[in-house]
Amino acid sequence: MYKVLIIEDDHKLRNLIGQYLAKWSFLPVLVENFEFIDQIALKENPHIILLDINLPGNDGFYWCSKLRQLSDVPIIFISSRSQSMDIVIAMNMGGDDYIQKPFSLEVLVAKMNAVLRRSNFFQHSEKDILTVGELTLNLQNSFVESKGKKVSLTKNEFQILYLLMKKTGQIISRDEIMRALWEDEQFIDDNTLTVNVNRLRKKLEEIGVANAITTKKRQGYLLQ
């Protein structure tokens, strides 16, 4: 049974989500104190977090950033905001997915299951390292290293780099990456992939690997 932390200030929606998820064998934990979300997350140690953006006091972006300093637990944003920039910020802060209100509870469960499958696959499928040129990707802790410098990757960044490294020198289409990440393209905002790739590029630059990922117009991405 997966424990899910529901951080939503609308008590009716919070309870509705909790009741529905319980029917799907999730263990919902409803957050009602929005001052110490990071401490609650540490105490509860959930498998996944549903996080609203518009919260009393600090917003969801702030709490996502704080949570990312403590854990790589999957985070799905749930928000009434529909601007592309809100989605970009959410993903840049370390969110794994984004669903806009009002939403279907069936779609929410599908997104949660997809995120959890990705998380479990990369936690349990391989216990080794992947090396391509000067890049070394640790498949256990999601760190990428080059020449003694290393940086931690989010789950999405890790999976994108994993795919590119497994097929070094080959063009990987955006569709193929999205299928691998989210398993069902109908739930995907294409902009989300661009955000994750750009964020991955910046992290590679931090460890001295610039221009490793090449964009092939109308084709996809290539790791050289």
Automatic annotation (TrEMBL):
The modification 4-aspartylphosphate is found at D52. Keywords: DNA-binding, Phosphoprotein, Transcription, Transcription regulation, Two-component regulatory system. Residues 127-224 form the OmpR/PhoB-type domain. SUPFAM superfamilies: C-terminal effector domain of the bipartite response regulators (SSF46894), CheY-like (SSF52172). GO terms for molecular function: DNA binding. It is found in: Cytoplasm. InterPro entries: CheY-like_superfamily, OmpR/PhoB-type_DNA-bd, Sig_transdc_resp-reg_C-effctor, Sig_transdc_resp-reg_receiver, WalR-like, WH-like_DNA-bd_sf. Residues 3-116 form the Response regulatory domain. Gene3D superfamilies: 3.40.50.2300, 6.10.250.690, Winged helix-like DNA-binding domain superfamily/Winged helix DNA-binding domain (1.10.10.10). SMART domains: REC, Trans_reg_C. Its main location: cytoplasm. Residues 127-224 bind DNA. The keyword Kinase does not apply. The keyword Transmembrane helix does not apply. This is DNA-binding response OmpR family regulator.
